[in-house]
Amino acid sequence: MTYTTKMLSASERCCEHLIAAGSASATVAELADAAGVPERTFYRWFPTKEACVAPVLDAGSTRLAAHFRTAGGETLADLMLTGYEVVLGESYDERTMRLFPILHSRKELWAEVARAVNDGEHLYRPDLAGRLGVAPDAPLALVAASAVSSAFRQSVDLLARAGDDPRRTFRLLVEASPTTDLAVSGAA
């Protein structure tokens, strides 16, 4: 889905509200107020309360696709490790550490994470395939994109379930994956 700047901003404010509250128990009225929009607009933008986090999650996939198109690196591991920083690290570190355990506390919110990871895999697979020099539907592109999405999913899942450092988990998963030494071509 395509989000407007206002929708993304509202989603960011909803995530900030969840983090400040330290729980996922916010009402739609509270989230709409935090987003700075009337409830009617909230429901027009986000069909469910849980959907208010979708633009923030999907923005990470969009950043990753752009990263795969433009970043330097010689292997899939290089792209993945620098991609982590673009999606969950750098300026997103604190939000990552605080938001994902809250999202995990409600199955409907965690379903948004699962949806975003799945949709993201389809979004960035063509860019990743281009770097691997194969068609987007080639088995190699499917396996590589799956390795990327799996590493992201597992790193935030272990953060949420056990408090594990997602950056460390991501690095360990990248190092353990046999696909990550695949050579990639230069940035487009």
Automatic annotation (TrEMBL):
SUPFAM superfamilies: Homeodomain-like
The HTH tetR-type domain, residue ranges: 20-54
Top-rank taxon, per record: Bacteria
UniProt keyword list: DNA-binding
InterPro entries tied to this protein: Homeodomain-like_sf (IPR009057), HTH_TetR (IPR001647)
Descriptive protein name: TetR/AcrR family transcriptional regulator
Gene source species: Nocardioides hwasunensis
